[in-house]
Specification:
Layout: E1 2-9, E2 17-22, E3 31-35, E4 46-51, E5 58-63, E6 78-83
């Protein structure tokens, strides 16, 4: 059990990720948290979530497509999952 941090990173420019954590892989309504941008003007995503021990979760990484602003989903990206220390 503990507080977990899920983050996306990319060395490529304009990689806009969308990050979600679900309790059921196939059920969008089981979403526990979702994040598009970790901060203003950042394309990375970050979620911090308290999770019980032994309960599986599914981490979904998608991309934001916005032709009006000149970028579309592309990779590569890295996903980092860490236990947050108190």
């Amino acid at each position: 059990p503990g507080r977990w941090r899920f983050e996306t990173f990319s060395d490529a420019l304009d990689v806009a990720t969308v990050l979600a954590v679900r309790s059921d892989c196939g059920a969008a309504d089981s979403e526990l948290a979702c994040n598009d941008d970790a901060a203003v003007d950042q394309f990375t995503s970050r979620i911090e979530l308290d999770l019980p021990a032994g309960v599986p979760v599914w981490v979904v990484v998608d991309g934001l497509t916005n032709p009006a602003e000149g970028y579309a989903w592309q990779g590569p990206f890295r996903l980092s999952v860490t236990l947050v220390e108190d």
